[in-house]
Specification:
With 134 residues, this protein is mostly helical. The protein has one domain: Four Helix Bundle (Hemerythrin (Met), subunit A) (Up-down Bundle), CATH 1.20.120. Helix content is 84%, strand content 0%. It has four helices and no strands. Helix 1 packs antiparallel against helix 2, helix 2 packs antiparallel against helix 3 and helix 3 runs antiparallel to helix 4.
Length: 134
C-alpha cells in the first residue's frame, strides 16, 4: 500500500513539474513572439504601414496573457520583492498603450501612435531591466 501511495505521489509531482515547465516554455515562446512584434511595430511605424502596425500590435497583445499565467517568482531570484505585482502592472500598462495605439491609428493620429509605441517599449524595457537582470 505504501509503495502505491509513493508511486502516486511521484506521478502527481512529476506531472505538476512538467506542467510548470510547459507553461514556462510557452512564456519564453510568447516573449520571443512579442519581441518580434515590437520590432515589426517599429519597422511599420517608420514605413507608415498601418496594416502591419495593427497586426503586430495585436500579436503583441496576444502574448501578454502568458505573462500572467506563469508566476514571476518561478523564474526570478528569491530576493525579487514585489515582482508579481510589478510584472502584472507592466502587462496592464502595455495593454492600455496598445489599445490606445490602435485607436490612434484608426484616427490617423500618427504622433500619438509613435508615443504609444514608445510607451509600450518603455514598459517592456522597465520590466526586463528590473526583473530580468542577473
Amino acid at each position: 500500500m505504501k509503495k502505491i501511495f509513493i508511486a502516486l505521489m511521484v506521478a502527481l509531482l512529476s506531472t505538476s513539474a512538467f506542467a510548470g515547465s510547459k507553461a514556462e516554455k510557452q512564456l519564453a515562446s510568447d516573449m520571443r513572439m512579442m519581441l518580434n512584434a515590437i520590432v515589426d511595430m517599429q519597422k511599420a511605424a517608420y514605413y507608415n504601414d498601418s496594416r502591419v502596425l495593427k497586426k503586430s500590435t495585436k500579436d503583441l497583445m496576444s502574448g501578454l496573457d502568458s505573462m500572467l499565467a506563469v508566476p514571476a517568482s518561478s523564474y526570478l531570484e528569491k530576493n525579487q520583492k514585489y515582482a508579481e505585482k510589478f510584472a502584472e502592472k507592466r502587462v496592464k500598462m502595455i495593454k492600455m498603450y496598445a489599445d490606445d495605439l490602435l485607436v490612434s491609428l484608426e484616427s490617423g493620429k500618427i504622433d500619438d501612435v509613435i508615443d504609444d509605441y514608445h510607451n509600450i517599449s518603455r514598459q517592456c524595457y522597465s520590466c526586463h531591466l528590473r526583473l530580468r537582470r542577473k
